Amino acid sequence: MRNTETLKKNYEFKQVLTKGKGYFGKYLNLYIKKENSNKNKIGIAVGKKVGKAVKRNKYKRWIGESYFHFEGNISARYQMVFVLKKNIELEQVNFWKLKDDMKNLLAKAGII
């Protein structure tokens, strides 16, 4: 069973982005804030400048799937927001590069 819920409300995203600590990778930015519950909460943000809805949803799926590969190794009680950078060449980004970047960010944050 997965111990992760999703952030859905705009104020939840804003709270993590403003009060959380930021870690910056090659393709992703990660913002983390401590949580009092026993579950992690994750949010994924991809800006409109990345492309149309089909392309944005593809990157959201890739980020979510990458996270769930590492979910078992992540300690609980965090709110996380992953933001895809917009100033990158998206033709060079693939699932494996996003997964490696996420692994580096989670290790840098000390939660994996």
Biggest sheet layout: 5 strands, mixed
Distance, first to last CA: 18 Å
Reading the helices and strands in chain order gives EHEEEHEH
The top level CATH class name: Alpha Beta
Q: What would you report as the Rg, rounded to the nearest angstrom?
A: 13 Å
Q: How many beta-strand runs?
A: 5
Q: What coarse outline follows from CA principal-axis ratios?
A: globular
Strand content: 15-25%
Low-confidence stretches: none
What's the helix count? 3
CATH topology: Ribosomal Protein S5, domain 2
**Class from helix and strand fractions:** alpha/beta
What does this structure look like?
By secondary structure, this protein is of the alpha/beta class. The protein has a single domain (4-109), classed as Ribosomal Protein S5, domain 2 (2-Layer Sandwich). Helix 2 crosses helix 3 (95-109). Strands 1-4-5-3-2 form a five-stranded mixed sheet, with helices on both faces. It is built from three helices and five strands; from the N terminus they run βαβββαβα. The relative contact order is 0.25.
Kindly list the characteristics that best describe this protein:
112 residues, alpha/beta, Ribosomal Protein S5, domain 2, five-stranded mixed sheet, 38% helix, globular
Annotate the secondary structure layout.
Blueprint: E1 4-6, H1 10-19, E2 21-24, E3 28-34, E4 40-45, H2 53-70, E5 78-84, H3 95-109
Helix pairs in contact: 2-3
In short:
This protein has helices at 10-19, 53-70, 95-109, and strands at residues 4-6, 21-24, 28-34, 40-45, 78-84.
